[in-house]
Amino acid sequence: MFPVEHILYLSALLFSVGLMIVIIKRNAIVVLLGIELMLNASNLNMVAFNTLHPGLFSGQFFALFVIIVAVCETAVGLAIVLRVYRHYQTSVPDQITELKD
Amino acid sequence: MSLASLIFYFFEAMAALSAISILFVRNVFYGALLLIVCLLCIAGIYVLAFAEFIAVTQILVYAGGILVLIIFGIMLTSRISGKPLMVTNRNWFAALLVGGFFFALLVTLFSKQEFSAGIAKTETHENMIQSIGILLMSDFILPFEIAGMLLLLALIGSAVTASFMKSKNEDVSR
Fold first, then answer.
1. By Cβ atoms counted within 10 A, which residue in A56, A79, B93, B124 is the most buried?
2. Which of A25-34, B66-75, B157-166 has the lowest mean pLDDT?
3. Are B47 and A44 in contact (CB under 8 A)?
4. Residues of the domain holding A41
5. 0.90 cut: is pTM over it?
6. Please, are residues B122 and A54 in contact by the beta-carbon 8 Å criterion?
């Protein structure tokens, strides 16, 4: 069967691509997509290392709770993006330059 | 090459390709759809790595929840004119530098390690869902409860944040 290293290489690739998306893209929603990608890369690592210890479920539980935290982060992040859009009429973080009204 | 490893490498290639193409796609909606393809492929890899419960959770939460949420976000933040929401890029050089070096670092670190044999067909835990449920109610009860609390907090917080209350200086006419 397949070795664990290949899952780790995939997760390294996904994490770097997520990081690049966060740096490159100029829209707040796409930045959130990049953060989701990075969280999933870490989840992939947890599940991959859990397969080295059959009978233990700690890695899978960690992945489960990371998914829960990712859901909360996406919900609150999109709510903030909506709020900011309604106030400034833009969802580009570079154009939001003032803190006060 | 067995059928299982063929499926595994197919899922890996699909996940990598769809993740990389998010970088080059300019329509935000297509980006969200590509992200869902990537996450479903990751769910397939979870199944092949004997983590069925995580795979089902991934499909339910991401395809059912986060995709809908992100598409709502895209629809609510694009202007009514019917144009799709486009995104522009910047900082290509810095991103390539950071991403490329980080990827190279991780790959060299991983290739230096020796992990034991690999994912072999272990003895099938015949009732994995049952043992996960028992563990969730015994060993992992504290994170479980805290996760429930966190979900409630995030629900209330996002509902309040996105609600249609007028702030003081906001235009009443829009």
1. A79
2. B157-166
3. no
4. 4-95
5. no
6. yes
Domain contains B36: yes
A5 touches chain B (CB under 8 A): yes
Bridge partners, residue A25, by sequence: B89
Backbone Cα Rg of chain A: 17
Domain-located, residue B62: yes
Give the ipTM. Answer: 0.90
Tokens in use for B164?
């249609």
CA distance A20 to A17: 5
Closest-CA distance of chain A to residue B82, Å: 16
Higher pLDDT, B44 or B172: B44
Which of A29, A50, A82 would you mutate first to test chain B, the one with the most B CBs within 10 A?
A29
Q: What is the arithmetic mean of pLDDT over B124-133?
A: 76
Residue B6 sits in the same domain as residue B73:
yes
